[in-house]
Amino acid sequence: MIAAPEAEATFALRMRQRRDALGISQKVLARKVSLERGWTEQATIARIETGKRGVSLADAIALAQALSCELGDLLTPVKCQACKDNPPAGYSCQTCGTSSERSTA
């Protein structure tokens, strides 16, 4: 089991990684979540992603839905501290060997 502070940090990291993978801005994510939860500020998303604001269970579920993933995906602990399980596009992590595909955009 992971402790609450680590869970919050993991959630923030995985949320940002998922948002980046989808290619959406904090502002777009805030708009998507506002339909469900009523807060619309991009700054709220920024505070969550930087660990300056925690989230309630209801907010976490709404964020997962807005990011088209399961809540568990946002709580999966990081295996590699070097690359945070997400090396830059087109590169492989020299520590864990995880590779990332090049962006086609």
TrEMBL record:
Q: Which residues form the HTH cro/C1-type domain?
A: 15-74
Example of a GO MF term: DNA binding
Q: State the superkingdom.
A: Bacteria
Record InterPro entries:
Cro/C1-type_HTH, Lambda_DNA-bd_dom_sf
Protein's recorded name: Transcriptional regulator with XRE-family HTH domain
Q: What organism is recorded for this protein?
A: Kribbella italica
